[in-house]
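Thread: Newbie trying to understand structure tokens

Hi all, I'm a second-year student working on a class project, and my supervisor (Dr. K.) asked me to get a predicted structure for one chain before our next meeting. I've only ever worked with sequences, so writing a 3D structure as a token string is new to me. If someone could post the tokens and maybe explain what I'm looking at, I'd be very grateful. Here's the chain:
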Amino acid sequence: MKRDYYEVLGVARDAGTDELKKAYRKLALELHPDRNPGNKEAEEKFKEAAEAYSVLSDPEKRKVYDQFGHAGLGGAGAGGGQQFQFDPRQFADFEDILGSFFGGGIFGDLFGGGRRRPGGEERGSDLQYNLRIPFEDVISGRDSMELSIPRLEACEACHGSACEPGSRPETCPQCRGQGQVAVRQGFFQMLAACPRCGGQGRIIPKPCRACGGQGRVERKTKVSFRVPPGVDRGTRLRLQGQGEAGRFGGRSGDLYVVFDVEPDARYERDGSDLHRRLDVAWPLLVLGGTLKVETPYGMDQVKVAAGTPADHVVRLPNAGVPRLQGGGRGDLFLHLRAAVPRSLSAAQRELVEQLRLALEGPASEEPAGEGFLAKVFGATDRNGKKKHRKAAP
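---
Reply by user tm_fold:
Sure, no problem. This is what the structure looks like when written as tokens:
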């Protein structure tokens, strides 16, 4: 099962282009085949990071992935329905990625690395809700679905600032609002989160008593959204801004609704196609005619040709599941089987017996000479002794 692309790169879901690029470069430096010769695990992780970056750096692919996950990409990641092809050595070399790895010091100056931006605002966490829906919602969708979810929302007393009303946060005196301090390790100088403010760049002198200085409180909230037709088990729908509230003015996270679908006894699903076993009266298969069939979209008529075998498959175009991407529907395949009655009336039995005799015809007689069993097991002579047939040379 594919890992979440944001998790692979280690970035938030609202990460910008620059942040995605820096995260990928850092992984590329760490996992590059030139630094890990013969290490298959590092090579696979390198490919995984490259695939994640190729999707998230493309605005259109990222939009589809954010809403429907891997299923929206056809299950093939960056390939868009084809197998993802990757050459590990076609990406940035070491000189291109060293600058982002060494955030400062001599290598940062040489390769263009910069200091990290101070992190005052804190984005809210994403939430996930597993939702089981009936098969009918897969076919027609649902215009309005409502969920009641517990989540952290901005404190009404401090409006999310975490400060007691009438007070304000103050700039951290140790890092001067940067959220980072320089740490030397031998020849290198690196940046680390400020221990005084925890990387926030500011401190709370008077925490809000209503929320305990957290800026958020837990509440149950109703969220409404639309269920698109064609969702499948594991399909993920992103509701932007419906996750937990951020802190210190940060944006809210997202809510991800992951679907599960109740099975339907009539159909077996294969992607956007449906399959159904259908028992058909034997005379209809022999003589041909019209068969009325119930589909997910109402009744339909199927013409059955005379002499149709019992294992025949009939395809009804555009009678399957709607496609999430690309429009249209899949097909419905009817697997015909001959229906055999378990009990018959006396009149029915007589008619079937007459039909059987008519179809079988007169029994064929064994020609004179050796009988069937004699041919198989060997004939006997006049004295009753068994004759053995000579084997062919």
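A couple of things are worth pointing out once you decode it. The chain has three domains: 1-114, 117-169+204-263, 268-339. The two ends are 62 Å apart (CA to CA). Feel free to ask follow-ups in this thread.
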